[in-house]
């Protein structure tokens, strides 16, 4: 493994050697052990600017890309101001993975499709010309079909950043919204839109919103340590018993993490009665185009979104 000392050097080594960048290594190591990749890995330099959580003078919060997922969960400032993020981060994987994994690595990890992760199959993602999952076994695949690849994006943290309208900093490129980091999902060869040598250096969160409430939940096939079949996160602000602001996103449903504006539009300006919440959650399914083995996810998406809306309304507000 190469260990350059600067970001420029790391980018150059990747380009010159057809290598790949490595952050915490949880995904890279798994793909290497499984025979999915034999490319050399280049460790992102462990620079101070890539670590830590800092509140800025304008009220925003900057998080270095190499900050550990466990650090996100435990930070009092993030817990107080950004509960959607900390609750999402705290639910993913296992304590060991949260300790080893990084913010940037979680955002840029490769998808978990069984066929892509099996060296005996070839697909669009590894340079092939088809999607064996589409005609094969695909119960964990997308329920919103964005294009040739039906593997859901695996980043839980991405959906939390979507509802916060967060931005990512890319070395020598500038700032992107989280939505622009992933695009529309139509390119089956990529899980994000960064070039191999581009380095994500930080995430910036807007200032906390006093009075907002947040919740996260996932549906999984076993008690813990499993990739979600569907997951959702919500931020809700209620004033005088009327929803004044809401942001909802879901994962496990498409090739990219997705905001759900249909849900948001169905809630803003209304009293959050059980009937209105159910109607809003049902709106989450409007874009669904399920595959033969993912039809069950339509109802699962509705129920998961309903759950996070109900929990968010009931949770204590940010102060």
TrEMBL record:
It comes from the Bacteria. Pfam families: CO_deh_flav_C, FAD_binding_5. One of its GO terms (molecular function) is FAD binding. Residues 1-210 form the FAD-binding PCMH-type domain. InterPro entries: CO_DH_flav_C, CO_DH_flav_C_dom_sf, Diverse_Substr_Oxidored, FAD-bd_PCMH, FAD-bd_PCMH-like_sf, FAD-bd_PCMH_sub2, Mopterin_DH_FAD-bd. This is Oxidoreductase. It comes from Streptomyces lunaelactis.
């Amino acid at each position: 493994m190469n260990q350059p000392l600067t970001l420029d050097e790391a980018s150059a080594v990747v380009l010159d050697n057809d290598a790949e960048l490595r952050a915490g290594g949880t995904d890279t190591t798994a793909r290497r052990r499984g025979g999915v990749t034999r490319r050399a890995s280049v460790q992102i330099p462990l620079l101070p600017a890539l670590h830590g959580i800092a509140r800025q003078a304008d009220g925003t919060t900057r998080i270095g890309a190499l900050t550990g997922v466990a650090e996100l969960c435990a930070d009092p400032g993030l817990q107080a101001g950004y509960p959607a993020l900390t609750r999402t981060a705290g639910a993913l994987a296992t304590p060991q993975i949260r300790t080893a994994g990084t913010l940037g690595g979680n955002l840029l990890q490769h998808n978990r499709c069984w066929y892509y992760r099996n060296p005996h199959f070839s697909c669009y993602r590894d340079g092939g010309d088809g999607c064996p999952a589409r005609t094969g076994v695909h119960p964990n695949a997308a329920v919103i079909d964005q294009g040739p690849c039906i593997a859901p994006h695996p980043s839980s943290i991405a959906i939390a950043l979507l509802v916060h309208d967060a931005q990512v900093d890319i070395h020598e490129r500038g700032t992107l919204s989280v939505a622009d980091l992933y695009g529309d999902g139509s390119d089956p060869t990529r899980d994000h839109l960064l070039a191999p040598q581009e380095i994500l250096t930080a995430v910036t969160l807007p200032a906390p919103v006093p009075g907002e409430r947040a919740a996260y939940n996932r549906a999984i096939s076993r008690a813990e340590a499993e990739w979600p079949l569907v997951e959702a996160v919500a931020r809700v602000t209620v004033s005088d018993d009327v929803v004044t602001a809401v942001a909802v996103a879901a994962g496990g449903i498409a090739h990219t993490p997705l905001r759900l504006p249909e849900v948001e539009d169905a809630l803003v300006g209304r009293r959050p009665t059980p009937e209105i919440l159910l109607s809003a959650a049902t709106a989450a399914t409007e874009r669904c185009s399920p595959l033969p083995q993912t039809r069950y996810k339509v109802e699962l998406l509705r129920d998961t979104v309903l759950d996070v809306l109900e929990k968010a309304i009931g949770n204590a507000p940010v102060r």
